[in-house]
Amino acid sequence: MKFEEAYSRLEEILEKMNSGKASLDDSLKLYEEADKLIVNCQKRLSEAEKKIEMMIKNRNGEVVLDEAGNPTVQAFQP
Amino acid sequence: MENQVLTVTELTLSIKKQLESRFPYVNVQGEITNFKEQASGHLYFTLKDAQSQISGVLFRGNAQSLARMPKNGDQVVVQGELSVYAPRGNYQLIVRQLQYAGVGELLLKLHALKAKLEARGWFDKSRKKPLPTAPKTIGVVTSPTGAVIQDMINVLSRRHAKFHLLLNPVKVQGDGAAQEIALAIDHFNKFKLADVLIVGRGGGSLEDLWAFNEEVVAEAIYRSEIPIISAVGHETDFSIADFVADVRAPTPSAAAEIVMAAAVQHLQYLGQADKRLNQAMLHLLSAYRHRLDTVRRQPILTSPFAILGQASQHLDDLSEELTESMQRAIVTKRLQLAGLQRQLLALDPMVRVQHLKQKLSQLTAHLKSIDPKNLLTKGYSILFRENGSSVIFSPKEVQAGENVRVLVKDGEIKAKVL
Q1: Same domain assignment for residues B259 and B138
Q2: A20-24, B191-195, B350-354, B372-376 — which one is most confidently predicted on average?
Q3: Region of B41 on the Ramachandran plot (φ > 0 left; ψ -120 to 50 alpha; else beta)
Q4: pLDDT digit string (tens) for B35-89?
Q5: Percent of chain B residues topping a pLDDT of 70
């Protein structure tokens, strides 16, 4: 689900819950759904692991590749 | 004129008048030497070439607009006017503008390339790629040394707890810098190493920033499938890279802000939504709790037997009534049944036969009791006419001499009336 879709569903749920028209049972279900949406989106936004890396280059300024042909990296300390 | 004797001042003023009106505005190219910056802020130098030299001054007001401070050996083009300084009897250039040699050429090249790429549609808004909402890896093409990368890391750390930055270290100025930058962009694409790229460097002169105005860099940016944020120099510097990139950031720090802006905004929204959700739920629960409390305070619920008492009593009454009426019904039915049984019994053929038998034996007994022969056993006799069976009841029915029959218990006696 795209963020925008998740958000419009969230708004819909909040509106329903605030309108007081939903039964307690429905509200609990809506709450659970909204909570899942929020946690999911937050997870997607914070998925990256904190890493600061630099590609390794040789003296000629060429990227050093590993055996699999992928660029090698090292931790970068600015 | 030839015989006329002039004072020094007269001559000097005449020269001044001649020179200054003859050269009110000149463009002069040369090399800076004897450069001197006075405490006043005025700059003094000599402009020279292989054969000649001329003094020059750049007053503080004009010096402030310089991209950088000139130094000895700089090839420059100056614009200004010629001025004669009478007290010392020398002439000098009052410089209004100073441009480093080659700049004019570079600017021409820049404008030509800009026009060419613009005509190709490389700057069109329609081909700008949107930045990813939540970039997993931010690729950076810049120098590994200096404040730029440091500033970007600081901004990223402040704005977002988690980010993955992958730096492709490059030379950002001098020979080969443009090729290295272009190759770095290509590498990120070839190995799919990032979700978004920041390409740039800190501020500097036009020559310093020149790599970002080279066609080879423009081409690499244009080719890139990964969205690119350009961040070249200061806010006032514009480069070709800025025009081709998907987003132009005024500075490298701003680029770091921009790359995380969407994610930060999303996280803010989600934080708010979470708060609103919990508030809504708490509100709802408290509303329901209130309703529940109100209901619970109803007497019916505080003592549930109150509502049941009446009903239960009514039920008891009904039950009693039901039992009674059932019993009454049973008694009535029983009586009816007994009656019917009696009727049935009366109608039983065996009973009737018995009945008739009884009656018959009564009648038989009775009959027996009245049988005349019975009387004969007791010594009575019956008198019959001789030839007939008629019974003689009276002496008047017979005549003397008549023969009669006397019936006794065990036979007949023949007799004659006397």
Answers
A1: yes
A2: B191-195
A3: left
A4: 999 999 999 999 998 899 999 999 998 888 787 788 888 888 889 999 999 999 9
A5: 98
Q: What is the ipTM of this complex?
A: 0.81
- Number of inter-chain CB pairs under 8 A, A vs B: 104
Asked if B289 has any chain A CB less than 8 Å from its own CB, the reply is: no
Q: Does B270 touch chain A (CB under 8 A)?
A: yes
What residue ranges do the domains of chain A occupy? 3-45, 49-78
* B215 shares a domain with B147: yes
Find tokens 């010594």 and name the residue. Answer: B379
Task: Say if B24 falls within a structural domain.
Answer: yes
Full-model pTM = 0.56
B225 closest CA partner among B193, B254, B258, B255: B193
Cα(A52)–Cα(A74) distance, integer angstroms: 9
CB atoms within 10 A of CB B10: 11
Nearest Cα of chain B lies from the Cα of A50 at a distance, in angstroms, of 5
- Residue-wise pLDDT for B138-150, tens only, equals 999 999 998 899 9
- Identify whether the C-beta of residue A35 lies closer than 8 Å to the C-beta of residue B277: yes
B38 and B152 in one domain? Answer: no
- Domain end point (choices B246, B265, B284): B265
Domains of chain B: total = 3
Residues B220 and B135 in one domain: yes
DSSP A20: T
Residue B213 lies in a domain: yes
Q: Are residues B136 and B84 in the same domain?
A: no
Q: Is residue B209 part of a domain?
A: yes
Closest CA–CA distance from residue A66 to any residue of chain B (Å): 12
When scoring A21, A32, A76, A77 by the number of chain B Cβ atoms within 10 A, the one with the most, hence best to mutate, is A76
Residue in chain B lying closest to A27 (CA): B281
Contact assessment for residue B34 and residue B70, using Cβ atoms and an 8 Å cutoff: no
Residue ranges making up the domain that contains B155: 123-265
- Does a structural domain hold residue B210? yes
Yes or no, beta carbons of B284 and A27 under 8 Å apart? yes
Q: What average pLDDT does this structure show over B126-134?
A: 90
